[in-house]
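step: validate -> pass
step: tokenize input -> pass
step: predict -> running
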Amino acid sequence: MTDSDTDTRLSGRQKSTAEDADAARDVVTSVVDNVEQVIVGHHDEVEHILTALLGRGHVLLEDVPGVGKTMLARSVAQSFDGTFKRVQFTPDLLPSDVTGVNVYNQKTETFEFRPGPVFANVVLGDEINRAPPKTQSALLEAMEERQVSVDGDTHEVPQPYTVIATQNTVERDRTYQLPMAELDRFMKKLRLGYPERGEETDMLDRVVGSHPIETLSPVVTLENFRKARETAAGVTVDESVRDYVTRLAQYTRRHAELGASPRGTIAALRAAQGRAILDGREYVIPDDIQTEATVVFPHRIRTESAESTPRAIVDEALEAVPVE
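step: predict -> pass
step: emit ->
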């Protein structure tokens, strides 16, 4: 079943019930608890990744090296009983190294497709901005359309499908800036930051000897996760909530050179549906939108003045736009 099939079926008003929401919450909670066996001090970020996965979105982790971006992505991926592939982006990486290539088989005298690492339920794109734009763009079709085109043939990626990418923010002279069209395909952009003193001490205690990632096991089957995503897609979004997120997006467009895109409003609603699941609710409330807007909108906004940051504009929108 593809995402479009799921969306079509659920658009027929197959609403999630309170029992469905409770079951989905149990799935998500087990993953959060599992990830926190490895990751210390980033509970909010872990929840944000899970709401993105429930909302059929992709996540960009941006920060300085060494704060646990890759480890967080690996921990989430290993918590699901699905396929996981990692792509280490480098300046010499080719698009075919990501998507796959057709290889001629002399025995059958035909070309056979050898899939690349993009064909997995969870794909980790490590330091994505180290590769040139042409290679980065190899992910775009898979992220948006859940398929890959190679030599005129279309190949569907596994379902569910999520890309978690990390981005190096330090060595600007050795990296490539992600184009806006690519940034817009990520539902969320998250920053981890340095841990607090107690958190870092706890982390050091955990990694003495063997690292906990080495023994981390899946706690959720792929089928259970699919059901949780279908439940999230069926969470009720009232017209007043849809109008609220629209007015927030329009505020950013009026007060920035480039505001949140329509894809961004869709992402905010889907993330809010996932946030409702975290609370065991089968309906979205404005608080869900407000929580998710702070990580869904900013990377889609461009400002003319350095004094007015994208995050500041989102905060202003949340303050100025009333809940009706």
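step: describe -> The chain has two domains: 24-207+220-232, 234-324.
step: cleanup -> pass
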